[in-house]
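Hi there. Long-time user, first ticket. I'm pasting a complex I've been working with (about 647 residues overall). I'd like to know whether the download I got is complete or cut off, because the file seemed smaller than I expected. Thanks.
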Amino acid sequence: MADKTRENLERWCSGEGIDFINGEAEAAYKRRARRIADVIQLKIPDRVPIVPSFGMFPYLDNGLTCEEAVFDYEKAHQAAMKTLEEFEPDMFLGSGYAFPAPLFEALGYKQLRWPGQEIPAHYVYQFVEDEYVKAEEFYDHYLGDPSDFMLRVYLPRVCSQLTPLERIRPFAESFGYYLTMCGSYAYFGIPEVQEALKALMKAGEESLKWVSILGKQAEEIVSRGFPLFEGGESAAPYDLVGDWFRGTAGVMTDMYRCPDKLLAVVEKLVPISIKMGLDLAKDTGHPIIGFMLHKGADGFMSPEQFNTFYWPPLKKVMMGLIEEGFVPLLLCEGEYTSRLETIADIPKGKCIYWFEKVDWARAKEILGETVCIRGGVPASILFSGTIQQMKDCLKEVIDVVGKGGGLIVDCGLWFDEAKHENVKTMVEFTKEYGVYR
Amino acid sequence: MTDNLITLLVELKEQDCLRVTGERLEAGEDPHKIVEDAREAMKIVGQRFADNVYFIPDLVYSGKILEQISDIVKPELSQKSQTKRLGKFVIGSVAGDLHDIGKNLVSFMLDVSGFEVFDLGVDVPAQAFVDKIKEVEAEVLGLSGFLTSVYQAMKDTVEAVKTAGLRDQVKIMIGGGVMDDEVKKFSGADAYRPDAMAAVTLAKEWIGGA
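Hi, the file is complete. Here it is re-exported in full:
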């Protein structure tokens, strides 16, 4: 049977369709992509790949505030390219972590505070969690018609400028002239609804501006010989429910109060999450699809709850992507040691598990034959540790987790504040010490 | 099924807890006795959490049940329940940090474990911590943070406590997603703890005579 992951990775490694600036860049791209493809498939690469997950670091490190980075896309681009040039990582995101604040402003978006708006200019943006939608407003509606729920409940709730969209009629009823259009489209004539549509148009313009810069930037990054960071994003269904609609406490209590409905919704979210990942990744042609896992960490639920509400739907999403030849990259936020046995149940050589806090030796022992592990450097050491501490930490993770391949060195999270020399050490030391002989 | 409120709350039987609470009040029982039972149950819940039998969702759900029991009982209480408190604990998310889930959980567990908790909320300026410590003569300060952006704010807050001449009076612990012993060292705090019960246990060691 054809190995779709291998095929997809080979195509990615070939660099086909990339307009390289010169032969050297082409060779460098192929070397870097090969290194990543090998480590994913648990073949020993030439050396341990180093992929720092630069959060707001490129902007802070190049003299910008986070506020400048999220409002001025061009400045953010310039800073990111400087960081690329200086650190030469094996994969690079570009300035995609500096979300476009004007888009959020246009929408009156409540789930995020961005630098300069209620939080200091040099801070990363912050997610503001709440029970935005009550259980009784959520489950039945979502199960019946997710798009309608998103359009007429969720978006009006979390975007103050879109609140008037609560008033429009469900599109499921848009059956044409004599049944509904003639009357129900009157809602689009109401001034408040028209203002909401204008807000959407303004947000659309900002989004287009932002993705156009990122698109051009992506071409520049690969043409210089650096593979991109990932091709798309998906999520664990349980996190989607908790993060965006019900809040941490809300979704936790739903496990007791309405477990069947919660299970039905996470199941409903499986094909949606697969499509979300594939749509983008197929466009970008990049084999890696990122997941940021928020609510399944050690302690955040019992093993039984993890094995009921969290892992089975997540695994289905991962399998859906794997079957199409894509590589799920799971950023496991929080501590994950107690989950290792469970998440080891996945096909061999198809995923990357990226840990923030874990018993690294145990992770290697349990997952080493199955998935590539990423991480190893705590954000706190990057921020305040000495160069020697950095080296000790890197040496340990490369010795333990990198033994025989299967490791990508990185911080355990998207880092913002960090000492320049520590980031430099993370990159240089890995390139030097991480060579397989 | 038992009608024992302690067992019902420990076993997270929401509807039965509310039913039994109502029945006991109707039967004319002293509402303080119901509060005592609920408190006793929460001790067991906390212990189960510390023993890895219960997890965060169990704490959260027990909190939701407790809240409803309190709502039913409160109007019936003749005076505020006089429980001896173990000590005074000021807590908050440091300046610039808006995260509160972990901090709320620690507050809640400290409260049900018998501490007098002064929760200043999120995005708390260093001076507000200092003022509160002075005002209530707190013995422990808990600083919460979830971002690498706030490592400095942790240190600034500890510094402010020192500058105000309060450092000897108050023990300081830190916690939150990106915190660890390295940040403890950097900030000058006394300890880092990874979860709510670990925070309670440490607070008891410091001031609760555990």
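A couple of notes from our side: Residues 5-76 of chain B form a domain with the Methyltransferase, Methionine Synthase (B12-binding Domains); Chain A, domain 1 fold (CATH 1.10.1240.10). Chain B touches chain A through 32 residues (CB under 8 Å).
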